[in-house]
Write a structure and sequence with these properties.
By secondary structure, the protein is mostly helical. Helices cover 61% and strands 2% of the residues. The chain has 13 helices and four strands.
Length: 343
């Protein structure tokens, strides 16, 4: 069993040594194979009931999003197909019934005024939230890792330049600038026949705007780790063996950074989902009739007194999704860095 070149004392979350094989002290004992860092982290996650529950809840939300077409086929109503027979024109187009129009056809009721099936809107809106959250987290993580590696390893003017850029990005009030930039960019990219922006392009702009203001957090974290790792013995050994910069960066340093990178990614996803919901709530994210949880909450706030279920259902589901992702991120952090676990 071979181990990585990283010394045992790696300063926190970068301790990724595989446990060495050990000899059973009993007579006739056998060699017990060491466990990889991933297996040790997975074992800690399985022992933590809260993290396990959060993981199962996250997987359930992802499965619902992926199976949205199948689930909505059961009710025969799509996310932008109104059911005018489910709303009462005599009461201002509010749903029939006392629970927001919940019935066998509409499992969670219908939207007041439009008659859209709320179940279909929610499961398709979940796809939007997860897509924006994960896509922006992946993009910001990739950019942050590359920038952090370059700043920490090369140092000098490269470090100074990238560090100043990080400081500038961290100083921006993220939400305010995204609110200002998103409609400007979308209006400049009018692509459909109605003078609006294609929905896929709107989502891409939203992902890019969130990622642009989020990568600096990961870059600052990676830079600090690289500054410590580049002075370690295994990096000096690689240099003595005439290893190139690419080999040192991606074969020596990067494998020892996967724990903080994964933790940063896990914590960025729920934050990005919350940001996307806030932008849609304010009218600069996903625009109706395309489904989105933030837009649902914005519309539902106008009908809360007459139809509280319209606000209650998407609000509780958004809370549960973000809570599950946050608990999962905390559990991943504790599993990968048990010495930093809070008491």
């Amino acid at each position: 069993m071979t181990t990585q070149h990283q010394p045992a004392d790696t300063g926190g979350s970068t301790a990724l040594l595989t446990e060495p094989p050990t000899q059973d002290p009993r007579p006739g004992g056998t060699v017990v194979a060491g466990r990889s860092p991933a297996r040790m982290a997975w074992k800690r996650i399985r022992r933590d009931k809260v993290t396990t529950a959060a993981l199962l809840a996250t997987l359930l939300f992802i499965a619902i999003a992926l199976l949205a077409p199948v689930l909505t086929a059961l009710t025969s109503w799509g996310p932008i197909t109104p059911d005018n027979k489910a709303i009462n024109p005599d009461t201002g187009n509010f749903p029939y019934g006392s629970l927001g129009g919940i019935s066998a056809q509409h499992l969670l009721g219908v939207e007041p005024g439009t008659g859209y099936d709320l179940f279909a809107r929610i499961v398709y809106g979940l796809r939007t939230s997860l897509y924006v959250g994960f896509a922006s987290a992946v993009l910001s993580t990739v950019v942050g890792v590359v920038a952090g590696l370059a700043a920490g390893y090369f140092g000098g003017w490269v470090d100074s330049l990238l560090s100043r850029v990080m400081d500038v990005m961290l100083a921006f009030p993220q939400l305010l600038f995204i609110i200002a930039l998103t409609p400007v960019i979308q209006n400049a990219l009018q692509t459909n026949s109605h003078g609006g922006t294609d929905e896929n392009l709107r989502l891409l702009v939203l992902v890019l705007n969130i990622a642009v203001f989020a990568w600096a957090y990961t870059a600052r974290l990676v830079r600090g780790q690289v500054l410590s790792l580049r002075e370690r013995e295994f990096v000096d050994a690689a240099r003595l063996m005439s290893a190139g910069r690419r080999h040192i960066l991606f074969r020596q340093l990067l494998p020892n950074l996967w724990a903080p990178i994964l933790i940063s990614f896990a914590l960025a996803v729920p934050q990005n989902i919350t940001t996307e919901a806030a932008l849609s709530y304010l009218g600069v994210g996903v625009i109706p009739p395309n489904p989105d949880w933030g837009a649902l909450l914005s519309d539902a706030s106008q009908f809360f007194l007459q139809d509280p279920m319209y606000l209650f259902v998407p609000g509780v589901l958004l809370f549960l999704l973000v809570l599950a992702l946050n608990l999962l991120g905390d559990g991943v952090r504790d599993a990968l860095d048990p010495r930093a676990r809070r008491g």
